[in-house]
Amino acid sequence: MPHSSIAAEFLIHTRDLLDEYQARLKEIKSPLAADEATWKTCALQAERIIRDCADSLESGRPKVRGTLINLVAELGVERATQGISAVHSIRAGIILFDLVFDALTATVTAMPSEIGRFQSGVRALQKGIGNRLEAGALGHDTYLLNTVREVNAASRRQLAREIHDHLGNHVNLALRQLELHELQGDLRPEATKARIGSVKETLTDSLGIIRDLVTQLRRVDSEGTLQAALTAFLESMAIQEPEVRVEVNGSEEWATQDVLDQVFLVVRECLRNALAHAGAERVLAVVDIAPYSVQALIEDDGRGFDTSVVTTAGRANGIASATERVELLGGTILFASDTKTGGTRVTVTIPLLESSGEPAEPSF
């Protein structure tokens, strides 16, 4: 049997693989399948991976077209500008690997004489997905670093304006008053005394402005922040066990206060459920705030639960409330739990399509 036949047999599955791939992405509410344009770029990468697997089956050695993978870095930047987190690409890669691996297995199983080519196909699959994820992550990081650089530059410009508009004016006024004193000398003692008092008042105001600016620069993000709000919630629960850890990373200035409020409520509800029902030894909640999205992970090592039963219970439970809050912000929330192996994981992604860059007043 010609070696090319195994490649042809494998490629027969292409359309079905892409359809199933899209269906799986929609099932987990992935933004990669949310609109036709984004899906086309995702499907194109999947087709290229499938083609590389077919070429590898035909040649008997892994073949991955690196020149095409290099274009994925630009795709990573594009997705970042759309507010699509890199975690969605990773989830998509895992789904695609499972689907294509099963197709490779089915093809080789139907052609036992070609079993030796199976390894080449799998290696091409692994390398094709891995290289694309790496290239996409580099592009994503490039966008993130540039965004952080722009935010820092904006903060420096704001600080420069504060110094010029407020501190500069006060110091300039004090200088003018001293110059007038030099010109008039002691000819008018009463006016001189008043002017010196005015200079002292102006300089005192200037010191106050300096203290305010320094305080802002040195401010430790604790009071009135998401971290503090979640910590206060845990303290109010007076928890003896399980061990609970809460961590908030990134700058809250990248998110509106409404988003931060909703994230707090969602994470709090997930923590409350874990503490009340999981019977866990450890509970973890991590919130990452980036310029393009807010990511939250809440997990425990407890007994787990049947997510299908709870999410379709038709009552106003905590899961339904958390899901509604996230979806109203255009985000996604995924629940993964297993009553056999134990443990529950909740992942939340909320896009930040617009950000003013201005700090929001906390309202926790």
Q: How does this structure look, described?
A:
With about 375 residues, the protein is of the alpha+beta class. The protein is about 65% helix and about 10% strand. The chain has helices at about 5-10, 15-25, 35-60, 65-70, 70-80, 85-110, 120-185, 190-220, 225-235, 255-280, 305-310, 320-330; strands at about 245-250, 280-290, 295-300, 330-335, 345-350. It has a 5-stranded mixed beta sheet, with helices on one face. It starts with a helix and ends in a 13-residue tail after the last strand. The model is unreliable at about 220-225 and about 355-364 (pLDDT under 50).
Show unreliable segments. Answer: 219-223, 355-363
Largest sheet, order of strands side by side?
Answer: 1-2-3-5-4
Mean pLDDT reading: 79
The tally of beta strands, per DSSP, is 5
Query: Assembly state here?
Result: single chain
Radius of gyration: 29 Å
Query: What structural category arises from helix and sheet content?
Result: alpha+beta
Question: N-to-C terminal Cα separation, in Å?
Answer: 70 Å
Shape, principal axes of CA atoms: elongated
What's the number of helices?
A: 12
Largest sheet: 5 strands, mixed
Sequence of secondary-structure elements: HHHHHHHHHEHEEHHEE
Measured as a percent range, the helix fraction is 55-70%
Q: How much strand content do the residues show?
A: 5-15%
